Each structure stands twice: as C-alpha cells, then as structure tokens.
Amino acid sequence: MARETALVTGASRGIGRATALRLSAEYDIVAVARNEGELASLAKEISIGGGKCKTIVLDIADEQAVATALRGIKCDVLVNNAGVATMKPFLELTSAEWHRMVDVNFNALFYVTRALLPGMVERRHGFVVTIGSLAGRNSFVGGSCYAATKHAVNGFTECLMLEVRDSNVRVAVVMPGSVETHLTPSAGDQSWKLTSNQIADTVWYLVSQPDSVLVSRLEIRPAKAPKHR
After folding, report:
1. Full-prediction pTM beyond 0.70?
2. Is the dihedral of CA 192, 146, 130, 5 positive or negative?
3. Of residues 27, 111, 146, 205, which has the active-site annotation?
C-alpha cells in the first residue's frame, strides 16, 4: 500500500524540520521552505532514516508561485508551519515588517491551503494542521502585529474546521507557548522552553487520532515558568 503524503511549510528548520522528520516515519514528505541547502539537508536525513522527501524551494507569501509550485500535489496532511516574528513596539514597526508578518503568518495560509484543500475535499480525506501560538489569545507589549496574526490564525482554523468537517477533512491548530527556536531568539537560560521536537510530537498526536476523532485546538506550554534574577 502506498504511503500517504504530508506537506510541511517552513520545513527547513525549527518546528517545521522537526515535524517533517517526525512524520516521515509514516508519511512521504513534501518539504517547503526558502532555503535550498537546508531543505537538501533535511531530505538527506529523512532518506538515511528510510523515508522519502521531496523538496520545494518556495516563498509561500508569493500567491502565484504557491499556486504554480503546488499544482497537482496530492496531499493527505498539510502542516502550515511557516512563520516570522518581529517583536517591537508598534511605533517602531516598519511597514515592511508589518506586511511580512501578515503575508507569511496569515495570507500564506490562504495561498497554501487553497491550493491543497480542494483535493482533500474531493477525496473526502485529509488533515490541515496550522501551527499557531498562545499569542493567539494573549496580548503583550511588542506583539501588536505578531499577536494579531495569531489571533487571525485561530479564527481561520475554527471557521475552516466547521466548513469541511462533513467532507471528512479535519482541521486543527496547535498553540505553543515559548519554544526554543530561531523565530524568537533570546539570551540567557533557554532550558525551560519547549523544544521543536515536542511540538512535532504534538502534531503527530493530532494526525494519529482515529478518523472519528478531532482535537481541533491544542495548547501546549512549558511546565515551568522561567526563573527571573
């Protein structure tokens, strides 16, 4: 029996890379990111582990490029993971920083999901997982754009879940708290944070549930708060 296919965006590093590796035990992987070298490294690691990985070098904020690159791909699991973050007070944000976050964190959800979801609905089988954030229900200084995009992610995924559930397509959002990744680098002790592998395990938990079960929103956070001096 042919294996199913999982497509992961932002797959070259961090949560995306860890998720692609975790899913490669059961799925053929389509890894999407902008860095060709890092994608090649991922594909080699998956191949060494006995898996199969196709790579696509793509800026998912480019609507036409997404439509062209993903045309004809049969995808059983889509992991919308790619994201960017610039944390600074609103009055310090540039227009370019604002638009980049909105384009990658939110608009790209439309581009990628719109390209792959019709096939899932037609086949009456599929799972769309989006990596959101606890910022999607919290507010904090410096998060005027980033948190807004993650609030939007929650609205998007919940509405989509209701729209396609009768087509046997499941939709879920994972909302991590602090994760040790390149997305939000910081100094000092990082050992208290979640790891990319732990988020990848969470994605695996979602997609491995029986077809009759949908965990549509999953919050995950470090068990302990950071120690402040």
Report:
1. yes
2. negative
3. 146
Taking each continuous run of H as one helix and of E as one strand, the counts in the chain are 7, 7
Task: Give the domain extent around 212.
Answer: 62-184+192-220
Q: Work out whether the CA dihedral 31, 21, 200, 172 comes out positive or negative.
A: positive
User: Is 36 inside any structural domain?
Assistant: no
Q: Give me the CATH number covering residue 152.
A: 3.40.50.720
Please give the span between the terminal C-alpha atoms of the chain, in angstroms, as a whole number.
56
Domain-embedded: residue 133? yes
Q: Model confidence at 222, in pLDDT bands (50, 70, 90)?
A: confident
Is residue 111 annotated as a catalytic residue, yes or no?
Answer: no
Number of domains in the chain: 1
**Are the CB atoms for 21 and 45 separated by under 8 Å?**
yes
In the Cβ-directed half-sphere of 102, how many Cα atoms lie within 13 Å? 10
pLDDT in tens, 58-108: 999 999 999 999 999 999 999 999 999 999 999 999 999 999 999 999 999
In a domain, 22, yes or no: no
How far apart (Å, rounded) are the C-alpha atoms in residues 20 and 186?
Answer: 25
